Amino acid sequence: MTGLLIRGRVLTFVDEPRDIADTASYRYFEDGALLVEDGRIMAMGDYADVARAASADVAVADHRPHLIVPGLIDAHIHFPQMQAVASYAAQLLEWLNTYTFVEEQKFADEQHAEFVAERFMDELLRHGTTTVAAYCSVHPQSVDAFFRAARHRNMCVIGGKVMMDRNAPPALCDTPQSGYDDTNALIARWQGRGRLHYAITPRFAITSTPEQMEMSAALVREHPDCYIQTHLSENREEIALTRSLYPDAPDYTGIYEHYGLLGRKTLLGHCIHLSEREVKIIAETGSVAVFCPTSNLFLGSGLFDREKLKSNRVRIAVATDIGGGTSFSMLKTMDEAYKILQLRGQRLSPLHSFYMMTLGNARALSLESRIGTLEPGTEADVAILDSRATPAMRMRMETASALAEELFLLQTMGDDRAVAEVYVAGKPMKKAL
Ligand code: GUN
Ligand code: ZN
């Protein structure tokens, strides 16, 4: 048997939609199919054409009438916070100190890290998410557990050991030297192995001394192929404390700028309360602002200003930020993104939402030649979406006619129940869970 023919309604973006009427931004095949072989997409198009090109004995996975879209991508998530979701707190700093830093200490135990990592990957897949950029805990063994869990599912993931050497419990602190050494060893062990990518991860300026920032800068210089992930300008109290810890910096962004941590592979979680200067620097360096809607609402952090960032040509990604975020679902994430932008008087079309979860996030991660689309030659990470997954969705679908309408109800009413199946490098994963 050679290959697998995945049949259904195929939807993939080719560019960022200009507006809800921009039909040139995507390709859509009503009776479509993908031909998958050796983990890659070999052909995409009308079923009749793709089937003709396939061998006669090709296996067929018939997902009609469901939608076939690229596997969803989550650009910022904390894997050790899986059991800290839904913790009742005031805002960021109290939440970190009361719950998060307590929870993350458990990851010193490699067995615990492995237990959570396995369930974390399964939960992502149940929600149709095939790629994440994840923070692990300060413990190198948590990174090993994370990458091992991704590797045996053949998932494309980004991850890294959090570095923090102050303002956290002693059990969660490394030192500038040990953070550097551990990160170097982890990069040697995991970066570029199969579908795995390493992110150099100083948690945020509050938990890193200037000495640790220097060491982070050295790591970035020595490993230009790695990502960098950190948090920026999420919460007013956080910003005030950060400014007091780095009094010479012109602003919060200026700290990361000073240490050479900005660039096209830098993922900056939140970016809510930025000055004009900060927005300009983020744009100039090609760094990515990561919008985490459910987290920003749950922690009362503020309303992301997408228009301001877009008009300044800042690259934008979207993410759950579990456990500050409250759902693993990228559909729910876009639902909340839409509502945040409503409060800002900004509009997010459903075409844009689906672009952002797929090709948009792939571009933000510089992975668009591999994931985020269904173009032949790319890796076969695919989500199958059922717009009639619940009785209420079925009722609503009776009055939906246009594709954009269907996408909008999927995002507004959908969650893991709307993910009928997910393929990782061509292999079906959800039914087996
Ligand atoms: N800032 C620093 N660490 C964290 C974290 O774990 N979650 C969120 N939301 N913000 C942070
Ligand atoms: Zn975060």
From TrEMBL:
It is an enzyme of class 3 (hydrolase). Its EC number is 3.5.4.3. Keywords: Hydrolase, Metal-binding, Zinc. The keyword Hydrolase applies. The keyword Zinc applies. It comes from the Bacteria. Its cofactor is Zn(2+). It catalyses: guanine + H2O + H(+) = xanthine + NH4(+). This is Guanine deaminase. It comes from Paramesorhizobium deserti.
